[in-house]
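Obj: model holo form, ligand = pyridoxal-5'-phosphate.
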Amino acid sequence: MRKNYLLTPGPTPLPPQVCEAMARPIIHHRTPQFQASLKEATDGLKYAFQTQGDVFILASSGTGAMEAAVVNLLSTGDTALTVQGGKFGERWTELCQSYGINAEILDVEWGKAVDPDVIKSKIQNPKSKIKAVFVTLCETSTGVVNDIEAIGRVVKDTGAVLVVDAISGLGAIDLKTDAWSCDVVVSGSQKGLMLPPGLGFISMSAKAWKLAETSKCPKYYFDLKAAKKAWAKTDTPFTPAITLIMALNEALKMMKQDGLENIFLRHSKMAQATRAAVKALDLELFAPRASSDVVTAVKVPAGVDGEKLVKTMRDTYGITIAGGQSELKGKVFRIAHMGYIEESDIIVGLSFLEKVLSQMGYKFQLGAGVRAAEEVFLK
Ligand SMILES: Cc1ncc(COP(=O)(O)O)c(C=O)c1O
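Output (holo structure tokens):
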């Protein structure tokens, strides 16, 4: 017998209410019952996105919503600024390039947040042709959180729209879509929203719709004008992911009961505890100056095989954490504290991290990490 703990930055664990909703008999989508569910889900998402604008639910993973943003806003030959400080920032560039959009790449050192003033100098340049700025709220591959509020301030009064990948972070850390002037925010179901993978979400501001009027990128499944037209009749253009939308309503109900502020506080506490443990174990954070509250990336210490560490945690003790991606493979491990995760999960995860590190010959005071985390939780 073995219990499994999922401490990865997506998918994240599922609350029982969500699992129960997915076990219910399916209903048909062109019915008043489903329309009521769709309306409830859309209203609930507006709460989670902190927006009065339009929000659409797509049957796709988060990347589908990213693609929807690109193809609905731009045309082949347009210029966009893509901020790349990790694997997911690179995805914006790749998506733009796939559609013949000229991606002006703003490279940021992995482990650092983008400087909003650099974005400012690029888009406030009178010669700038940039129509959209693509950024990432939490760069899951490095654990970095970007200052979206400050970026919103510099993009706001320009002709460009601000597009935020909040796939990692929405519903876990603060992102005020309207108040921070985010024109388009995309997210996915399998992270802060506590659902299985399979839903993509996208919000659109009035400024984004204006740009969408001129967009000539080819699109069909992800055509948001079709989604908007269907939504006028509380409908969707294609068969929606009915079961996942029912489950989404359960997750959103839980989120409303807790309240966004309390959810953000819980995530902040878990992240502080994890970072305190890392320090107490004489380990190093990968992004010490811009650590997100959703996932903590830790440098693999010298003499330890990073991939074996992750594998042993998972295969021997049932604790799944994430390894490094791309150029960080084997160099970092990542502990997520996002979604349906609480203090007890973090304590369990840290205690087994200590156990495996110790078995792998890393020298430290056993219990120091758990103790540091407990001190944070006691505050
Ligand atoms: C920041 C970020 N962007 C994009 C994605 C891609 O999302 P998906 O795998 O749901 O398509 C992820 C998934 O890990 C992510 O963390």
